[in-house]
Amino acid sequence: MPRLQKNDNFIDKTFTILADIVLKVLPTSKEEKTAFYYYRDGMSAQSEGEYAEALENYYEALQLEEDPYDRSYILYNVGLIYSSNGEHAKALEYYHQALELNNNLPQALNNIAVIYHYQGTKAIDNNRNKMSKKMFTKAAQYWKQAITLAPNNYIEAQNWLKTTGREYNIEEQL
Description:
With 174 residues, the protein is mostly helical. Helices cover 76% and strands 0% of the residues. Belongs to the Ycf3 family.
């Protein structure tokens, strides 16, 4: 199960050592520890562009991990991989699953908005104006939620909302 470290930089090694120490000290079950190792190996593979290997590790982690908060991050990372591979429907599925377990994931909301914005742009390219409006409206809804959770992030999205007349207003979100 342990992944061979192909990337031998100082930060990766330090993180691995610290994570191993923390896991030994924390009172967690064997399954939780194993799930974390799979998750860590998945993140390492993902950072190196080894998406198939990352997915295998994430799926293993999902089989073992019971904590909803931890599962949400695993599901989010699976969504990232599918999104990177252009499989937007699958990415949306995993982002939504992550949000069901943890509704405080502005990055998942942002990524959903990015996909809808992309689909809106594609619809314009194909002269599907009704569809583009629908996708842009969805993008705006998700960006507003993400900005509510992380008001100092997503500046480009805030600018897009403003320039397209979908201006973000924090008072309307509260």
